[in-house]
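chain below, 453 aa
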Amino acid sequence: MSDLADQADSASIRQDAVSIFQAGIAAADPYQAVKRHLVPELLGSCSKVHLIAFGKAACAMAQAAQEIIPAGMLAGRGIAVTNYENVRHIDNVDVIGAAHPLPDANGLKAAQIIADRVQHAQEHELVLVLVSGGGSALIPYPAGQITLQEKIAATDLLLASGATINQINCVRKHLSRLKGGGLARMAAPAHLHALILSDVLGDDLSSIASGPTVTDNTTYADAIEVFKTKGIWEQVPANVRQHLEQGELGHIAETPKPGDNIFNNTGYTLVGSNTISVNAMLDAAQKLGYETELYSNHLCGEARTVGATLVAQCVEGRLPKVGALGEVSRQNKPIALLAGGETTVTLKGNGRGGRNQEMALTFAIAAEQYGLTGNWAFLSGGTDGRDGPTDAAGGIVDRNTIQRMTQAGVNPIELLENNDSYTALKSSDDLVNTGATGTNVADLQILLIQPEP
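prediction:
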């Protein structure tokens, strides 16, 4: 095959991967999700509606809600808190930009405004809460004597330790006034209903935005154990340690548990999820002529381990529709292995990147080392359009990625060890840049393998 033909084949399969990824993002459109589920029956006979939205999809969800709710029913202007990239004007809604993944002062101010609003809601009014991914960081309201900077430091330690999202949320619930059912506690005795766009695998409601409107089964003791398991308890700010220890001793009220009367007038509707997006990708891949297979709907673990394992399974023929070395078992039809999930990264270096970029870079390195053959492309991206503290959604690699990196004068293995996947992928033009998407249902992965002519 000529170099030009090789480049054309790589470009074609890469475009297919991007198209499939975009189909997954489109299926999580928060505006349409609210339009589908905010029915008149949900508003019931409530005299007024307090509209509260927070998360990366807050603006789109609030836009849809204010178009549906009669203006005379709104109890003042709505409130929407989102990350800075997604801020936009919405009629009758105050939009507040805040930082993610580490919280900032704007997020604290927004959380205080929300708390004040819901605490003034009356018994026959409805607090309509629109929840989406990123909400945990966007509305920080530290409990007790904990300062915002101390909460940021604790969160930073957890992120760098490779803690899972569930572990991070467990801690957040016990350092916050709003999370872990705190918002529902403030809203009682008013009615509360949440429309939830899930960015959590398995759609555990107590984990989505750290569950501000639902019950919490975790305890102060669990939060302490997270820090100790990660070996960072002694590095945690003193005020945070003291708060958690006082809670464990019973001197501070626990988060609301199942059976608590504050939940008598609360409800929720799940309006979007990672599973819905994965199913949309399966459909898109089929329409492009691929034989599809669900690799995993709960992809988790260390990003670089997951990427290398996927290559090994291809090379060793452990995937049903893929032969040894990645050759397509049914020679006349390309295949698409699709997944959804949320991996983690344990920081060891000081480079830039995110879990999706690290997984993509690892896949490319492992494919070169294992000798993965055929025309393939692998994409891993965040549905929110932002992977870690970078401007990229993730990465897309192919059989020529390592060659492009070498020609650019970079060492991909050294960059991976420094957690600098962004620099590596940028050098080979393998970053996926979507811009802020306005939604967030975790991550999506696409591996396409085409038969050799």
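The CA atoms of residues 307 and 353 lie 15 Å apart. The mean pLDDT is 93.
thats it, cya
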